[in-house]
Amino acid sequence: MKIKYLLLVVTLIVPPFLFLSCSASDEAENRIEAAKIVESRSSEDLLNDLYLASDGNIESLSRILQVTPSSINRLRNGKTVATAKFEEKVKTVAIYYYQNDRRFSLVQSALDEEYGWYDSILNFPSHHPWIFWIVNIVLFLLLVIIKYIYMLYPFIAEMFIFLIAWIVSLICTPGPISDNFTNSINPTIEQIL
């Protein structure tokens, strides 16, 4: 009886560990492959890849790399050359990009603090479905109460609620990045050829 029990325990415990070790080795191989790809390419090519992956969202890319948009444009166009410190930063972000199956949204959610706020608002219904539906039901009940108390049409109350939401979104939206290096180079990021 003890042998059957021991055999049952072994068959239930060992396979998950085998799966985890295979998964860990696949992840290690993925990291090595990403590092090889990044090391074989120049920082200008990697920066262009990140720019294309971001769909031209240069502000998000500049927040991720912690530089100004004009510096990224000059580096991409070949007017200036990246410093060694900035090349390492580009390679680090590129490795993270290649390790995450070339999905820039994962890089944004991990490294861009403003995108985290945007992503939480955008995906709020899927991340917090109970809160989303409770708020919708409460708003619907408020609309019904407002309709019967003030005898207003429901679409006027809905428009009022959306107007308030629009005003709040305008107030909470961050401003554009201030770019102090539009006419001059940033010496910590780029060098003249």
If you had to describe this structure to a student in words, what would you say it looks like?
The chain folds into two domains: 2-112, no CATH class; 123-172, no CATH class. 75% of the residues lie in helices and 3% in strands. It is built from ten helices and two strands. The protein has a two-stranded antiparallel sheet with strand order 1-2. Helix 6 crosses helix 7. The longest helix is centred in the N-terminal third of the chain and has 38 residues, at 2-39.
Number of strands: 2
SSE order: HHHHEHHHHHHE
- Could you give a short account of the major beta sheet? 2 strands, antiparallel
From the N-terminal CA to the C-terminal CA, the straight-line distance is 78 Å
Mean pLDDT: 77
* Lateral strand order in the biggest sheet: 1-2
Total tally of structural domains: 2
Shape estimate:
elongated
Please compute the radius of gyration using only Cα atoms: 26 Å
